[in-house]
Every structure is written in structure tokens, then in C-alpha cells.
Amino acid sequence: QPQLVESGGGLVQPGGSLRLSCTASELGRTFSNYATGWFRQAPGKEREYVAGLSRSGTATYYPDSVKGRFAISRDNAKNMVYLQMNNLKPEDTAVYYCNVENDQADYWGLGTQVTVSS
């Protein structure tokens, strides 16, 4: 089972920015065959889909709660997925998870904590 590894979380003040990274090195050259996404889960809440990026990198998805503030990107040469988060709000506080999927498989990381607080 390939393991995804997230990094870049931490404590940030409201209005600040963070860039999350996710490495999928174990997928090797197959990484480009996967769609990528970021999810988050706050205590007592269901997991929420916050960003998605197609295999080709041409199609993106963002819910209204983060649209205009979050941006997902990928680097197929490095097997990396990124989530740039700007103008962070306290309600963005959650554990953020990286996901890659295609018709045959669905892989997750262990998550990275993002806390937005003054």
C-alpha cells in the first residue's frame, strides 16, 4: 500500500498563509495516472473535500468555503501535490489529508494539522 506523506501544517494567525505539500514517491511513474485532492476534518465534523485536481492538471474543484483562497497544484516530475492556502480563517482549522485516486486505487496520507488562531 503506497504511503502518501503530508507536510507544511502548523499554527498560523487569521489572514495568514500556509502551503501544504504531499509526496507520493512510492507511486513512481504511475503518479500521473491519478487524480489528486485535499480533504480536511475538524474535531466532531465529517471529512470535507476542499480541493481537487484532475490527472491532466486542467480541471480543478473547490467548495465555496475555500474558493478564491485555496489553490491545488501538482508536479508530476516530483510526485508532489500542493495546497496553497491564503487568507486563512479559524474555521479552516483541521487535519488536512492528501488523496490520490483512479479507477483501480485510492490512497491517503496520515494528515497534517493546520491551526488558525490568534
Lay out the secondary structure.
Elements: E1 5-7, E2 10-12, E3 18-23, E4 35-41, E5 48-53, E6 60-61, E7 70-75, E8 80-85, E9 94-101, E10 106-108, E11 112-116
Parallel strand pairs: 2-11
Antiparallel strand pairs: 1-3, 3-8, 4-5, 4-9, 5-6, 7-8, 9-10, 9-11
Structure in words:
The protein has 118 residues and is mostly beta strands. The protein has no helices and eleven strands. It has strands at residues 5-7, 10-12, 18-23, 35-41, 48-53, 60-61, 70-75, 80-85, 94-101, 106-108, 112-116. It is globular and about 40 Å long.
Distance between the termini: 39 Å
Which stretches of 5+ consecutive residues score pLDDT under 50? none
Give the overall form.
globular
Structural class of the secondary elements?
mainly beta
Beta-strand content estimate? over 45%
Order of helices and strands: EEEEEEEEEEE
Radius of gyration: 14 Å
Kindly state the number of beta strands: 11
Q: What does the average pLDDT come to? A: 95
Biggest sheet record: 7 strands, mixed
Helix content: under 10%
Number of helices: 0
Structure described in brief:
With 118 residues, the protein is mostly beta strands. It is built from no helices and eleven strands. The radius of gyration is 14 Å and the shape is globular.
Features:
4-stranded antiparallel β-sheet; 47% strand; globular; mainly beta; 118 residues; 7-stranded mixed β-sheet; single chain
